[in-house]
Amino acid sequence: MRPISRVMIALAALALLVLLTVPIWRIDLAAPQYPEGLYLQIYADRFEGDVDKINGLNHYIGMAHIKNEMFKEFIYLPRIIMVLAALGLVAAAWGRRILLFLGLVTLSLFGLWALWRMWDWGYEYGHNLDPRAAIKIEDQAYQPPLIGHKQLLNFDAWSTPDTGGWILFGVMALLAGVYFMEIRDMRRRSRAVRET
Amino acid sequence: MNKSFKITGIVIGFSAMAFLMMNSPGCRPGTTRTAVTGDAASRVYVAPGTHDEFYNFVSGGFSGQLAIYGLPSGRLLREVPVFSVDPESGYGFSEETKPMLTTSHGFIPWDDSHHPELSMTNAVPDGRWCFINGNNTPRIALIDLGTFRTHSMIEIPHSAGNHSSPFATPNTEYVVAGTRFSVPVGSEAERDVPINTYKENFKGSVSFIKPEPETGKMSIAFQILTPPVNFDLARTGKGASDGWFFFSCYNTEKAYSLLEVNASQRDKDFIMAVNWKLAEQLAKEGKGKRAPGKHYSNWLNEHTHTVESTIYEDVLQLDYREHPGLLYFMPCPKSPHGCDVNPTGEYIVGSGKLAALLPVFSFKKIQEAIASKDFEGDFVGIPVLKYESVLHGEVKKPGLGPLHTEFDANGNAYTSFFVSSEIVKWNVEKLEVLDRVPTYYSIGHLMVPGGNSAKPWGKYVVAYNKITKDRYLPTGPELTQSAQLYSIDGDKMELLLDFPTTGEPHYAQAAPADLIKPREVKFFRIEDNHHPWVAKGEKESGIERRGRNVHIKMTTIRSHFTPDNVEGVQLGDTVYFHVTNLEQDWDVPHGFAIKGAANAELLIMPGETATLKWVPTKVGVVPFYCTDFCSALHQEMQGYLRVSPRGSSVPLKAYTVSVDAEL
Ligand SMILES: [Cu+2]
User: Fold this and answer.
1) CA–CA separation, A84 vs A107, rounded Å?
2) Does B661 touch chain A if contact means CB atoms closer than 8 Å?
3) Mind spelling out the 3-state secondary structure of B88-150?
């Protein structure tokens, strides 16, 4: 691989480490009586934001209380990120194109897995309601949107990537770009070999 | 036939004439409807979802409270309980707040509040605190503008009728309290004297109260004893006159009966100038004497949500006769009421309420007269400066019954005239009357936002009227009080709005909303709650018997009390409900009310603990419930307490039964 590609891969690997300190995903809620809005931020290892307030509201409709301890993900997600970053650094050091390809695939799988976990949690959270809840609405589930907007009773809910999410997308785009350049390089070189 | 036609014609003719006369302007005295300009409505309209530009802090007078309005809308935002108890919030009824209203006379649940004063930095309101005086049982209160709660209160000994208070020095080093009534002070024998020995035995006093900058706790730094006159109002010197204080005084006749006549005899009374920097220095050097004078200083500890009282047995007094240079008198025509200092601090306006002119004194001339001992004599040992020597000039024929003056940032003054019921705008430097507008009716105080400070915000002047008559829909013999908002942006003052006020408004102050809004306290952090009976979670709730007292640690959260069933209380017990509101969100107070409560309810803010004392009077089961509509299940927020006869064997317990246990 070209030296510039290796530098880019190293940078991408280091950028992944930023995910350990910044919010990755964000859920915003708005209702008339909450003019200041409510929000929830998902970090690699915890929730932040108006967790208590959201829990307070959700107990009327029988949703479970959100607690950090509920998620095993918060324990191994930081480790996965560190492993991915380490793999990236190894790929940069070694300089084999196959490693770059594997890294891209792993990262994509990781992203898909993370989205699936979120959807799964959202489904569980929105459907598994306490039968003794004060407010019960026939066939109403409260699954938050995976990405984008959704109306949940009197609340408008938005789900969007936060800083970490954008970094993750950026890293994937960067690696894809590097991979594309490398493939083009390889084609050019093999064409040059054929022509000579 | 013909005749009756004629008569009918004459009757119709007269009726038509009368009708035309009644509806044509000029045939009857005009009303204000003609005085309001076309776009007044749009200039006071604050659209839904938007905020007023100014907070207006208005004294409640005999309500004892402080009312807060938005300007320019004139909408009442809140009434802060200060000197009077408030069953709505439990102020003065909860165990935590009772000490706030405790004095050396015992628990005093009301007062007559007159003059709000915003705390200042560099002679400009800083939006931190609002002070207000209790006129009747001399006290000064400090209201925190983050919580809009009465945060501390101090009693003033040797004072009677705390009227010329509380006015703050440029950096709120002190707020002053001058007595309206002079009274005999000292030992019991010195106080028990015939009233007709007024001249020999009665004393006036002005007190300098120090609020601690960090905590807002107040104490009396020193008190200056004065001759027996009545102090009316006061203002701090600032800028040019920094370090001085000015008090208007009347009754220099030293009358003690029928003051209406006897105290209106002299052609001139006085404005007293106090060199407070000198007084401060004398006090620091230990030149004062500690005189007996028991008084309370009460302070709200925000960590325990409980008021603490400090009892002082004496007060540091300075005797003007021992310290020449401390006090001077300036003659001021006929019973001066307001005594107001312009933004630069150079001019002092005295408003003799029986005078037909308005004298303006020059601080520079006062200093020159003091330096050259340009005195016309002395009054009970205090040098009296020569009127002509200290006068900047007089505003001639300004109106009748001048009371108070406020200023704008452009060198103009606005004076209220009670008798001629108007506001008069005049230029301070040139002493020229520029404009006048009628007020409806008989204005007392007036207020320009920042109009007593070094940097007035201007824009409006508000009249606080003494008479309402026909301005609103009638409500029987007792009418609402009334304020009026005028624009002072242009050359001419323009009436924009009438708005009703609570109690009786005396003085008021206003500050831009942007100065106050950022201080907003939305709730109290439960982690910071160190109330001795706090329950920081439902698991910490419980019940305890201490002799005949039963203490219940109770929590509230949408939408239940924990515990909500109590048994084992007996007749003859006193029950204390210590209720902690566990909510940690904006605008979620819970209420607590129990049947037969002889005091009040509680309104508990998020993160706060409040205590209601309750004495059962009958055997049976008594309900309690939340009074503040807190959630969709507010009406379910309730509980029961069982009262058994004295000596009953029912064990004391407090519990909550969940649906699982009942199934
Ligand atoms: Cu409630």
Assistant:
1) 8
2) no
3) CCCECCCCCCHHHHEECCEECCCCCECCCEEEEECCEEEEEEEEEEECCCCEEEEEECCCCEE
Q: For residue B153, give the nearest of B180, B134, B126, B167 by alpha carbon.
A: B134
DSSP B507: -
- Quick one: tokens of B244? 């001085």
d(CA B585, nearest CA chain A) in Å: 7
Rounded to an integer, what distance in angstroms lies between the CA atom of residue B225 and that of residue B159? 10
pLDDT at A63: 81
B559 to chain A, closest Cα gap in Å: 10
Our separate counts of H helices and E strands in chain B read 10, 46
Structure tokens at B124: 């400009």
As a three-state string, the secondary structure of A70-133 is HCCHHHHHHHHHHHHHHHHHHHHHHCCHHHHHHHHHHHHHHHHHHHHHHHHHHHHHHHCCCCCC
Arithmetic mean of pLDDT, A44-58: 87
List the structure tokens of B465.
């009227």
Sign of dihedral through CA atoms B60, B401, B163, B189?
negative
Let me know how many helices (H) and strands (E) chain A has, helices first.
5, 5
Cβ neighbourhood burial of B264 (10 Å; 0-12, 13-18, 19+): middle
Cα(B625) to centroid of ligand 1, in Å? Answer: 8
Q: Would you say B493 and B423 are in contact if contact means Cβ atoms under 8 Å apart?
A: yes
**Dihedral, CA atoms, A92, A98, A99, A103, nearest 10 degrees?**
120
CA-based max dimension of chain A: 80
In angstroms, what is the C-alpha Rg of chain B? Answer: 29
CB within 8 Å: A60 and B632: yes
Residues of B in contact with A52 (CB under 8 A): 584-585
Edge-first strand order for the sheet with B327-333 is B230-236, B244-250, B268-275, B327-333, B382-385, B375-379
Count of residues making up chain A: 196
B583:A60 CB<8 A: no
Q: Output the CA–CA distances (angstroms, integers) from residue B442 to B163, B475, B483, in the order listed.
A: 20, 20, 11
pLDDT at B297: 98
pLDDT digits (tens, 9 = 90+) for B90-122: 999 999 999 999 999 999 999 999 999 999 999
C-alpha span between B227 and B204 (Å, rounded): 6
Nearest to B88 by CA among B627, B539, B624: B627
DSSP annotation of B365: H
What residue ranges of chain B have pLDDT lower than 50?
1, 14, 17-30, 662-663
Q: Are strands B638-644 and B565-570 parallel, antiparallel or unpaired?
A: parallel
Chain B residues 242-271 with a CB less than 8 Å from chain A: none
Residue of A53, A60, A135 lying closest to B585 (CB–CB):
A53
In B, which residues are within 8 Å of A36 by CB distance? 586
Contact B644, B619 (CB under 8 A): yes
The rounded Å distance from CA B628 to ligand 1 centre is 6
- Give CA angle at A71 (A66, A73), nearest 5°: 140
Condensed to tens digits (0 to 9), the pLDDT of residues B195-216 reads: 999 999 999 999 999 999 999 9
Q: Do A56 and B558 touch (CB under 8 A)?
A: yes
**Average pLDDT of the residues of chain A:** 86
User: What does the pLDDT read at residue A31?
Assistant: 84
pLDDT beyond 80 at A59: no
Check if B536 contacts A (Cβ < 8 Å): no
Which of B536, B557, B558, B585 to probe the A interface (max A CBs under 10 A)? Answer: B585
CB B456 within 8 A of CB B444: no
Give pLDDT tens digits for B404-443.
Answer: 999 999 999 999 999 999 999 999 999 999 999 999 999 9
- Residues 579-608 in B contacting A (C-alpha not used; CB under 8 Å): 583-586
Contact B586 A56 (CB under 8 A): no
